[in-house]
Structures are given as structure tokens and as C-alpha cells.
Design goal:
alpha/beta, Rossmann fold, 4 domains, single chain
């Protein structure tokens, strides 16, 4: 029997394959790929763009302004879809490609799906060196696309048209694997894109992908149950994996029914609402005092869907050295960290099996009573921090409280890097599950505005993305304000202008050093008494957005009500204090000079040495 084939270029076949991939969300069959963010150059415009142009209704292409930011928007889309749908980002060769290395790092660190399709130099090397090629004399097969190897979960260079038959399914399987989820990078040499091949028609048959739910070993479940039954003062840490597995409701019920306090990581925040009876707030360096106190007294810690980053663990100084860990995770490496009792499997399934095996065990009621008392005290601290004062410039906490009040339950708040992550994760009171996105796995400045654009696409009118961004991150990457206006995806952006990199200034001065090169007043400028000030509202208006500068919290409240009713992206700006921070949180292991002429630095070193003595030695 003769196999039926169709003759297509590599680029045409790649696009046709992507269009034939589907997934199922809430019983509805939808395309796996929501679309493409693209900036075209000589490395992808003549072949890949030719193929994309023909499928605009099935795989829409959106024009970005910067390769990094459009890839960040793609990441935010995948996060908003809880890793069940994926966006693509494509660039030309050279600088267009390497602009996306940082975005790939964001996706890799946060375990988020992203498909990158980048142009490359010619496999035949006949016209070498070509425009934007970086030559490697000792290894001519090396190109700048090799730089993505360090930040990709799947990496391939297509040098023959037939190779995509094996490569593309592997790339998709990687991005949809809960244990190995991350960016997939496909390098597309310019001549490979143009080559034609007789592809078997079955390669383009529609495929329905499902997210696997690996079940844990019964031995691991039993071991975890045996440890948990010994607990007198347990604590749950809920990570991003809880949200991505759809285990939020199961974990919330497990915590409440078993009487175990539940803290969250930054990636996990939003799995439950602020007033859930077992909830004690975020955990770690930017966490609540309630979570910190409970961690310091915990005898068993149940970590679910978290990689246990230092901002969660207080650089591993927050827990008693004899505390035992149970780690539920699809990734084996994460599950085995710090000598934990590993439960390798899907969070939802693992929790259900552990719950069933626990029988009638319930933690002593005194533990939950303690947690609720501590959390009540913490909320009183928040109320005090958020209450307006007569200060000329408001604090982050006061600004956040106004935005939080104005946000509708279905609105999603987005931030990343700088001082806002810590302030937002402490101060934001989640009204509806899965409406909080703080990119802190890679702490990437510039994610905020791009992320808002990606969320707006994913939300498709079901709520409005509200971006909180500092002046430092805004200056680093803001062009997707224009992208969102151009594409018609509305978001609200609140720019908190504290005059520079405020949180790094806090870290710097907190370690005994003078302010240097972070706040604008401490930078080398021509006129220190009057450094150049950016009018962020006018800047946003120049990109087509609605905009207002707010002189006070009352102005901000009124402006937010207006922004909810506008027909396009709206930017609000307000000055915020660079020196007032919400209290709470654990210690952080940072490098402080062992020797210094400054007494303040020597004192800071002594503090570091003291708390490092509590460090839990792990693997």
C-alpha cells in the first residue's frame, strides 16, 4: 500500500503540524497553541512567515515590539492558562534570537511552557558569513542559538526537513510534562526552512493532548502517611504546582479537614482566597510573620508542588533542623531535596491518596487555633500598614490597598522583580483563586507590562489584568503598552515611581553600605539637586494608552474607577515612598564582605554569621 504524502517546505509542514494539535479544557476541545508572537527578519520572514500568513484564522500571529517582551507575554499566557495552552514566539537570527534568551530563562526557572522558533544561519554555509552571524572559527557549526541550550528543557536544530517528524512531538511532550515542563527551542536554519519534503499525511492528523497525572508509588504514600501521623505541629507549603495540577480545592479541603495550617510560595499564591480558614499567608523572606512563626516550630513540613527556592525557605534557616519534610512533586529532583520523604507524582492524585490513607487522623486543634490567632495578628499589621496617613508620599502598602479594593474578583494582578513582589505578596488579599501572578522564579524586570499583555489575551475579557510596576522595571521594558493598544487587549498599569531601584537600595543600605547607583539621587548625574524626571503618564499617552498621573491615594482611587471603564489600556502613575516597607518575613543568605573599613558592613556581616548558624544542611 502506497503511503499518502504531501510535499511541503519545512516551515509549511511545521506550521501545519502545530495547527493540528488540540487539548481539552473544562470539557471543551481547543487548539493547543493560542497563537504566535512574531517579529520578522531575514531569518524567518521569507519562509516561516509565508507559512504563518496562510493560517491566520487558526494560528493568529501578533506583532511584538521586542523579542524578549513578546516571549515574556507568551509565558504569561501559558501561566494564565495553567500550562494547558501554549503560545509561540518567533524571531530572526542573531540579536533577534538572543533577545529571547532571558525569556527562556524565565520559562525554565518557573517551569512554564513556551515554544521558541528562531531563525539560524545556513546549514550549507555557502554564503557565510551572513548578516548577523557570529562566527566561531574553531567550531563552525556553533551559532548564537546554542546559547539557548542552558535555558531550554528541549533544544533542537533542524538540519533536514524530515527531522521535524520526530522533533516536534518530543518538544510538545516536554512542554506538557508536569515534571519537565519548560521552554522548547527549535532552531531553523534559513535553507532548511525552504527545503521541500514529501511528508506523510498522518503526521498532520489532529492530535488531542492531555496533561499526564503520574500516580505516586504506594510505598512513598505510606511512608509520607507514617511521618505525617507523628506530627504535632505540621505545616503545609503550597507551591505553583498545586495550581497547575488543579489541586487547589483538594489541598484547601485537606488542610482544613486535617487541621494543618497552610502557607503558600510566591508562585503558589492565589490557590486559595485570603480568608480561607487554614491559610496563614505567604511563606519565607517576603512572607508573613504568622507563616514564619509556624515554620520555626514545625515538626513536619508538607511541601506540595514547590522547588523550595531560598525566598520560600528563608535560605533554609526558617525550619528546625530536626523538622521532617514530606515533598510531593512530579519532578523527582524536587521531591528529594533536603532529605525529604519523597512522593513523586501529581499533586492532586497524591493528596487524594494520602488523604485516603490517613484514616481518621487529625492534627490537635491547638495547632490550627495558634495559626488563626497568628494570622489574625498579621492581618491587623496589614490594616495598619495600609491605612492612609498624612505622609506626602504613600507607601507601597497603601497604594496596593487602594488597587486591591478597586479590583474586581475576576481581575488578575501581575508584577515581577523589584520591591513590588514582596509588598504585593504580603499585602494583596486574593478575592478569587488564580488571579495572582508574581514572576519571581527568575525575578525578571520587564515581565510586568509584557505579562499583562499575555494575560489580557488569555483572559479574553473575563476580567482585566492589573499590572503593578515600579519605575525601574517600566524604564527597562514598556513597549507592550503599545502592543496592547495595537492588538486591542486592554490592561490597567499602575506605575509606582519611587525614584529608582528602591528595593536594591534597601538591600544595599541594610548591609551597612551607603546608597550608591540605585536611587536616582545616588547616581552620577549632572544635577544632583534636580535629576531628570520621567513623566510616565505622558510617555504612555504617546504610545496610545489612556493615562493619568495621581497626586494622592484619593486621586488613585478615582482614577482606578475611571480605568475600569475605559476602552483601551490605561496607565496610572503615582509617586511612592522608597524607604517604607511592610514588616515580616524570614532571613536571607546574601554575600556581605568578610572585611571592611565600615563598621556598618562589619555589623551586617555579624548578623549574617549569626543567622547562618541556623542553616539546615541539605542536598
Amino acid at each position: 500500500m502506497t503511503r499518502e504524502t504531501v510535499r511541503l517546505t519545512t516551515a509549511q509542514a511545521l506550521v501545519r503540524y502545530l495547527c493540528s494539535q488540540f487539548t481539552e479544557i473544562d470539557g471543551q476541545r481547543v487548539r493547543l497553541f493560542g497563537g504566535v508572537f512574531g517579529i520578522f527578519g531575514h531569518g524567518n520572514v521569507t519562509c516561516l512567515a509565508e507559512a504563518l500568513e496562510q493560517v491566520q484564522d487558526d494560528l493568529p500571529t501578533w506583532r511584538g515590539q521586542n523579542e524578549q517582551s513578546m516571549a515574556l507575554a507568551a509565558i504569561a499566557y501559558g501561566k494564565a492558562k495553567l500550562r494547558r495552552r501554549i503560545m509561540i514566539a518567533t524571531s530572526s537570527i542573531g540579536p533577534g534570537a538572543t533577545n529571547m534568551v532571558t525569556a527562556a530563562g524565565v520559562a525554565h526557572a518557573n517551569r512554564l511552557p513556551l515554544l521558541l522558533l528562531c531563525g539560524d544561519t545556513y546549514t550549507n554555509r555557502l554564503p557565510d558569513p551572513v548578516l548577523q552571524q557570529v562566527e566561531h572559527f574553531g567550531c563552525p557549526s556553533t551559532t548564537v542559538n546554542d546559547s539557548f541550550r542552558a535555558v531550554s528543557r528541549y533544544w533542537d536544530r533542524i538540519t533536514h526537513p524530515a527531522q521535524i517528524i520526530g522533533s516536534l512531538p518530543q518538544a510538545l511532550a516536554t512542554m506538557l510534562d508536569p515534571a519537565d515542563c519548560g521552554p522548547a527551542f527549535i532552531s531553523l536554519p534559513q535553507d532548511t526552512q525552504e527545503f521541500a519534503f514529501d511528508y506523510p499525511l498522518e503526521f498532520f492528523e489532529e492530535t488531542l493532548w492531555t496533561i499526564p497525572r503520574p500516580r505516586p508509588s504506594s510505598d512513598q504514600v505510606k511512608a509520607a502517611v507514617d511521618v505525617l501521623k507523628t506530627a504535632k505541629k505540621p505545616l503545609i507549603i503550597s507551591g505553583g504546582g498545586v495550581r497547575y495540577s488543579g489541586a487547589s480545592e483538594v489541598l484547601a479541603a485537606f488542610a482544613a479537614n486535617r487541621g494543618i495550617p497552610m502557607a503558600e510560595t510566591i508562585a503558589g499564591k492565589g490557590a486559595v482566597v485570603h480568608d480561607h480558614p487554614a491559610y496563614v499567608g505567604p511563606m519565607g523572606i517576603e512572607g508573613t510573620d504568622a507563616a514564619k512563626t509556624l515554620a520555626e516550630t514545625a515538626d513536619v513540613v508538607v511541601a506540595v508542588g514547590t522547588r523550595l527556592q531560598d525566598f520560600t525557605t528563608g535560605s533554609w534557616t526558617t525550619f528546625p533542623r530536626d523538622a521532617r519534610f514530606i515533598s510531593i512533586n512530579t519532578a523527582r529532583a524536587d521531591a528529594h531535596k533536603h532529605r525529604a520523604v519523597p512522593v513523586v507524582g501529581d499533586a492532586l492524585v497524591a493528596l487524594q491518596e494520602i488523604d485516603a490513607a490517613l484514616g481518621d487522623w487529625v492534627c490537635d486543634a491547638s495547632r490550627m487555633e495558634q495559626s488563626q490567632k497568628l494570622y489574625g495578628e498579621w492581618n491587623a499589621v496589614l490594616d495598619e500598614c495600609q491605612t492612609p496617613t498624612n505622609a506626602e508620599v504613600p507607601s507601597y502598602a497603601q497604594v496596593i490597598a487602594v488597587v486591591n479594593k478597586a479590583a474586581k474578583p475576576e481581575d488578575t494582578v501581575i508584577t515581577a522583580a523589584g520591591g513590588l513582589p514582596g509588598e504585593l505578596v504580603k499585602n494583596w488579599r486574593v478575592k478569587q483563586a488564580h488571579t495572582f501572578d508574581c514572576e519571581f522564579g527568575y525575578s525578571c524586570m520587564g515581565y510586568e507590562v509584557a505579562g499583562g499583555w499575555g494575560h489580557a489575551m488569555a483572559m479574553d475579557g473575563n476580567g482585566t489584568p492589573i499590572v503593578l510596576v515600579g519605575d525601574g522595571s517600566y524604564m527597562m521594558m514598556n513597549s507592550d503598552i503599545y502592543s496592547s493598544v495595537l492588538s486591542g487587549h486592554k490592561m490597567i498599569v499602575v506605575v509606582c515611581d519611587n525614584g529608582g531601584f528602591g528595593v536594591i537600595n534597601r538591600l544595599q543600605t541594610g548591609q551597612g553600605q551607603p546608597g550608591f547607583n540605585n536611587l536616582l539621587v545616588d547616581c552620577r548625574v549632572r544635577n544632583k539637586d534636580n535629576p531628570c524626571h520621567v513623566d510616565f503618564a505622558k510617555h504612555a499617552e504617546a504610545m496610545g494608552a489612556h493615562a493619568r498621573h495621581c497626586e494622592s491615594l484619593a486621586d488613585l482611587e478615582a482614577a482606578l474607577a475611571w480605568a475600569q471603564e475605559t476602552d483601551a489600556t490605561t496607565v496610572l502613575t503615582i509617586e511612592s515612598d522608597a524607604h517604607i516597607w511592610t514588616p515580616g518575613g524570614a532571613d536571607w543568605y546574601v554575600g556581605v564582605p568578610e572585611v571592611s573599613e565600615r563598621q556598618g558592613v562589619r555589623d551586617a556581616r555579624d548578623v549574617q554569621e549569626k543567622f547562618r548558624g541556623k542553616l539546615r544542611v541539605g542536598v
